[in-house]
Amino acid sequence: MTSADRIPDPTRFVLMHTSHPGNVGSAARAMKVMGFSDLVLVAPRFADVLSREETVAMASGAADILVRARIVGSLAEALDGVTHACATAMTPRDFGPPTVAPREHFAALAGTGHRVAFVFGGERFGLANDDVYRCHTCLSIPTDPAYGSLNLAQAVQVLAYDWRQALGGFGVEPRTAPAAWADAAAVQGLLAHWQQALVEIGFLDPAAPKKLVPRLNQLANRAALTAEEVHILRGVAGAMQRLAKAPRREQG
Fold first, then answer.
1. Residue in 121, 136, 90 with CA at minimum distance from that of residue 27
2. Of 77, 89, 158, 250, which one has the greatest count of Cβ atoms within 10 A?
3. pLDDT on residue 251
4. CATH topology for 184-245?
5. What is the spatial distance between Cα 161 and Cα 2, in angstroms, rounded to a whole number?
């Protein structure tokens, strides 16, 4: 059982008048990776968009979101049960709700107990003014002023991520075991081994070592070596010693 099955989904994503099935599938995927599942489509271009091949392909494992999704005829139906609706638009509307950046608004909205809906306009024309007026606030994703056009599914992903972070986020699971750092004795043993190997290959003159070994010591300290890395470097030093002692091939 997933966390989405155990905890009631507090968030609804509403897509208005979508025209590209791929965007619906991609939006479902964006929702699922952030732990959301409530998707409602308002009058999409294709009545069978939720089952179209392109939609399912772009959902890429989020087919369960599509199965549970609903298609309705109006925004009023899509917002049934919602207590705080957020329109998404690049530009503010005259006489409309306040336009704010998502992250700032989410910080104040999280923990209030509202059932939140994010309303996205269609790919061709965005949201109509009347649709924006139905919402409590208008979210504008900060973008480069020279080019602020976001794909529908990209906008869903940005808001889903920021909203999930405001709700507490997900922990990052480490993919590798914590490093076993080499202790001082191991590092000094490595340096002694390298010093001997460098002498044997003729790189270091023991009569005039200058500052080579202290500099190697500082390099090792900056590198913050792990026990495994010390083992590898000692293996390299051993290989150098074996090559130095091996008889040289006669040159023809």
1. 121
2. 89
3. 45
4. Helicase, Ruva Protein; domain 3 (1.10.8)
5. 18
